[in-house]
Design brief:
The protein is an alpha/beta fold. It has helices at residues 8-14, 41-48, 63-76, 87-98, 113-125, 138-144, 167-176, 189-192, 226-229, 232-244, 251-261, 264-283, 302-308, 323-333, 363-368, 385-397, and strands spanning 79-84, 104-108, 129-133, 149-155, 180-184, 202-206, 220-224, 288-292, 315-320, 338-339, 349-351, 375-379. The protein starts with 7 loop residues before the first helix and ends with a helix.
Length: 399
Amino acid sequence: MREGKLGFSTRQIHGGKKTESAYGAHKTPVFRTSTFDLPSAKVGAERFAGKDKGYKYTRLGNPIFDLLTSRIADLENACPGFTFGSGMGAIHSVVFGLLNHKDHMITSDTLYGCTDSLFRNHVKRFGIEADFVDTRDIKNIRNAIKSNTKLIFIETPTNPTLGITDIRETAELAKEFGLITVVDNTFATPYLQRPVELGADVVVHSLTKDLGGHSDLIGGVSVYSKEFSENEEYMSRLKRASDDFGATFNPEDAFLVLRGLETLNIRMDKKCENSQAVAEFLEGHKKIEKVYFPGLESFPQYDLAKKQMSGPGGVIWFLMKGGYEAGEKLMNSVKLCSLAVSLGSTATLIQHPASMTHRIIPKAEREKVGIVDGGVRLAVGLEDKGDIIADLEEALEKV
């Protein structure tokens, strides 16, 4: 074996902490158990005291969870964290695990609908302040920092408008003020963007999307920078949040994510190729008002996307001429594309954020950040790009 770090494609198959082989199994077995036998009362006491790192109860840890978190950490060039029953479980545990009553956080003004609701409605009920700013402009973040600010949370690219925040610039500002930087890297995946390499402290993912890759599971994960993971207070709080909040992952779904990771590079390369072709088709169509896609030179943050990401990703945001009615007609007219929320599937998914994923955001707030009634989100899949374009072309003829 050559010296040095293995390539990404190799690490997505072989990376991470190895579990003990069972009967010579080539793949890590699914440890489908709620509890683990303890060799003695003394060892049991040591495990619950944290002195012995052995397993005791699946909500508190499972061998396949450890393999999964260490493999994703390897791909992110980060340190392992925790798995969760959903991406929202990961975000909830990180934010509530790190912040106290009367602390202040800054977050992107464009977020996945449920993340927005968590920050807009729930954290405030527990006495945590949250300011929503356009994080694409670093001055907005700097101006929002207060004496009790503890954390900056960014989504980049954002859901669904694909706004991009400069991670390195944000992390440098955070370090200047002693703040924690958390990045939701779901849209890009570690194949296209690695926030820890750019200075972020915490990275969260929805495993439901491209890391799982097949629309057959729901899960979440968090990983951490080396410097952050060496902070015993932070990691103790995050471990306690992971243990106590109950957003437990499923061992069988962990196995499916591990399987999905093995083809991540192939799938993302294909999605980038397909999305580029579809975005170029949409940009030239007379019934489309505007197309937002990081791979288009017309994209407002094209240069930053090229600098920060190694590919444009698989999601396109476009605005229909004719507003909501036109978008609704389009979605009801597609045949190949599936009218469904979520993204990261093998199939192409189309949906209307204003009435679906982002409906819970107040209309005035939603429209202020560009999630308008005529906006359509297309999560491009692995089909032949010509077939995707043909389906959209036929559907657009009916609008």
